[in-house]
User: Fold GDSL esterase/lipase from Panicum virgatum.
Amino acid sequence: MAQFQRLLVGLILAAVLLLVAEAAGDPDASGCRGLTRGRYSRIFAFGNSLTDTGNAAIYPPTAGGTFTELPYGQTYFGRPSGRASDGRIITDFLVLWRSCGSTTHAVDGLKVPQPTPYLAGRTAADFINGSNLAIGGATALEPAFLEARGVTSFVLVALSYETRWFENVLQLLVGSASHHAQLSITASSVFFVGEMGINDYFLSLFSNHTVDETASLVPHVVGAIRSALLATLAAGARTVVATGMPPLGCAPYMLALFPGDYDRVTGCDTRLNALAELHNGELKRTLDELRRAHPGRSLLYGDVYCTIRAAVTSPAKFGFGDAPLAACCRGGGGPYNFKFTTFCGAPGSTACADPSKSISWDGIHFTEAANRPQC
Assistant:
């Protein structure tokens, strides 16, 4: 792991791949070589815009967003690709990536094809390689639950909706086949659950709730994640990865919109980071409970929090520039280069000359450089 010059999500990815390999019983996992050896056939991904590879670009309420225009996609695809980044995101590297380290320590990705965004598929053939069920703007909690607490969702899709989408896909794939056929699909798949809850907490704060009031949502958010994990386990999943909450107090949009108390070392908001830590503690306890209840299943935790905080604390060490809390593409200037009404790609916004020096692409989402593991 220490060989990577860019830690951030790249380290999460390497850790996830190693854990997945160990879960599969790969005899070479300790040497990080040939990690999955074709043990997995597909991936099913759940989450929000940090994981979405195309659903928000199809979903009518969000289809016309600025993320469907350049400069989104400029670094890798040369065009908007449905991803909220300048290039590839973690799900792209999870399925395809191979590190460039020494032969002894090379780490392979899952070696599975890119899963089809749920809204882009129609038939079983479309989902033979799995499905990305994540959609930008998704919340962990259902809109009615949030509304009852004075919180209005921008996108009326919750994690439970994505779970139902997964069940639809599974029904297409299995058809009238036996239960054994379903298990053969789910047992040979990796289930990836991205950082759900980010939008719930943001919307609560945006609705003028205090950090303490927002923290009261944590048990409910983690409960929704638990329900989604149980749904995958009930379907026969054997390898599930759930990533924790990133340090919310280090995100440019959070810093710009919700001024508070700042850490002297990182410049991050300590109150918002405490909220993220509370969430992560609850999620880890939930995963421990599920492991005890489901022996023989691998329920893995991806620690996003520590890796991002490390990159923000020492950006030069990991190849980033000297403004780790600033958005690359946005409008607003100041230490965070973020104004809520000036979206990346809209009039008044500009993109930095070299996105690879930035952690945050548009103040909310990561750059490809932050997602991509490098030697």
